[in-house]
Design brief:
The chain contains no helices and eleven strands. It is mainly beta. It is globular. The mean pLDDT is 96. A hairpin with a 6-residue loop joins strand 5 and strand 6. Strands 2, 4, 5, 6, 9, 10 and 11 form a seven-stranded mixed sheet that branches.
């Protein structure tokens, strides 16, 4: 089992940057495919970015491509999301998620994931 804790959210002006972190407890973090999701008020949870357990295969949603970057440091049991050029429409609660994986794949559907963090609020003002 793995427990996930997100940090780094906050209030930022449009055009600004934030870096989210997701720290995992438990063993074998490097055995888990990971993802970042967000959920805005009244909207469904959507995948922002995802990573295979090695970090060698990654996915970014079209809405954030070129602005957000997912990365991971398996030695530190930490997943990151660097968010640049933030827009008001990026406002949401951001969640990290994990699922044990041995195939080297990434996953972008919420129901692919077993473990979730509590979320961190990101608010982008115009």
């Amino acid at each position: 089992q793995v427990q996930l804790v997100e940090s780094g959210g906050g209030l930022v002006q449009a055009g600004g940057s934030l870096r989210l972190s997701c720290t995992a407890s438990g063993r074998s973090f490097s055995s888990y495919a990971m993802g970042w999701f967000r959920q805005a008020l009244g909207k469904e949870r959507e995948c922002v970015a995802a990573s295979s357990w090695t970090g060698g295969r990654i996915f970014h949603a079209e809405a954030v491509k070129g602005r957000f970057t997912i990365s991971r440091d398996n030695a530190k049991n930490t997943l990151y999301l660097q968010m640049n050029s933030l827009k008001p429409e990026d406002t949401a609660v951001y969640y990290c998620a994990a699922v044990r994986d041995s195939t080297g794949s990434y996953y972008y559907r919420p129901d692919n994931y077993l473990y979730w963090g509590q979320g961190t609020q990101v608010t982008v003002s115009s």
